[in-house]
Design brief:
Elements lengths: L1 E4 H6 L1 H9 L4 E5 L2 E6 L2 H24 L12 H9 L2 H6 L5
Parallel strand pairs: 1-2
Antiparallel strand pairs: 2-3
InterPro entries: Antitoxin_Phd/YefM, YefM-like_sf
Protein name: Antitoxin
Organism: Actinomadura physcomitrii
Length: about 100
């Protein structure tokens, strides 16, 4: 994978775009650390879909074990009732967390 400093990438955006579109990801670094990788939309879609499938599988496993996956927001019926009955002021104030 090609690695390009951010300052140089600004002037080479067209070439970086062309490389990514051909399926060759380009890493853009800032101050020597890898900050981003430019990939084609097709490659991104494949990676994102694979990640969603992995997440779904992890969720299924946790539910089969009778647990709630870490980081999952659990919404109870009381929350839904409270949200439905909330005033616009309560929504604007952001006081309706689950």
């Amino acid at each position: 994978m090609e690695s390009v400093p951010l300052k140089e990438a600004r002037g080479r955006l067209g070439k970086i775009h062309a490389s990514a579109a051909r399926g060759q990801p380009v890493e853009i670094t800032r101050h020597g650390s890898a900050a981003v990788v430019v990939v084609s939309k097709t490659m991104y879609d494949v990676m994102f879909t694979d990640h969603l499938r992995w997440q779904a599988e992890q969720f299924r496993k946790a539910l089969d074990e009778g647990t709630v996956p870490e980081g999952t927001l659990v919404i109870h019926r009381d929350d839904i009732d409270r949200w439905r009955d909330a005033t616009p002021e309560e929504w604007a104030a952001g006081r309706l967390d689950a």
